Every structure is written in C-alpha cells, then in structure tokens.
Amino acid sequence: MSLWSEGISDVIFDTGSSAFDIIVDRDDWIELTGIDKLDTAPIQRIVNSWGAKVTAIGAPARGPLTIGSAHIANPRVFFLKEQPNLLSSWPFPARALVGNAPFWNRIVIMDLGIRPRFGLLE
User: Fold this and answer.
1) Residues near 66 by beta carbon (within 8 Å), at least 6 away in sequence
2) 34, 48 in Cβ contact below 8 A?
3) What are phi and psi of 66, to 5 degrees?
4) Nearest Cα to 56, choosing from 21, 19, 92, 81?
5) What distance in Å separates the CA atoms of residue 72 and residue 66, rounded to the nearest whole number?
6) Which residue of 12, 45, 46, 115 is most buried, as measured by CB atoms within 10 A?
7) Per-residue pLDDT tens for 21-56?
8) Which neighbouring-strand residues pair with 23?
9) Three-state SS across 56-96?
C-alpha cells in the first residue's frame, strides 16, 4: 500500500473524531482497504458531522498504522459517503484525519507553539 509505505503527510489530529482511527478521502480508502464496492464495506454508521447526519463507511486497513510511537496493528479506515472528497476540498493540505481511537491507552501531548508538535506518552 503506497499510502502507508510512503508515509502520510498532512495528517490532522481531531479530538472531535473520537470513534475513528483514521478518516481519508474515498480514493485513499479504496487503496488502503482494497475494497472497491462500497456496499460490501463491513462498517456503515450514521454519525453527526457539524450538525449534519452522514454515513461513515469503514473497513480494516490492509496493513498496520504507525503514528509516532503508537503502532496500531489493525486500524479501521473510514470515509464519509456524502463527502467522499472532504479532505481534498479543504483550503489547506490534509490527507488524513486521525481521531482519538488509536490513542485510548496513551496520553497525547500537543505543543501548539510556533513549531506545533504532537507526542505520545505510554
């Protein structure tokens, strides 16, 4: 999977996306999961996104996800059915949105100074 093996840049950490390991646009979702028929996706949830109901389509990734010191062996990857190109439509670079789910057993440290940094404590 080139997206995983090359490393994803432009990752946004969103504390409001607590239930999700990672959210990407539909084309990246297809690459990461290997599923091209959306009706066969094993996870379909109706969720709230900025006051609107949307369908989160999810499936296990075909490989592990590493973010800093966090190694997620079986990440679940999602995209929003009603907004399949959500991230690429933003006015700033964003390739993936990571929620709280990969970090349940860790402490997240964010330095929002002039050089923002993201860190994890075990």
Assistant:
1) 72
2) no
3) -120, 125
4) 81
5) 6
6) 12
7) 899 999 999 999 999 888 889 999 999 888 889 999
8) 78, 97
9) EEEEECCCCEEECCEEECCCEEEEECCECCCHHHCCCCCCE
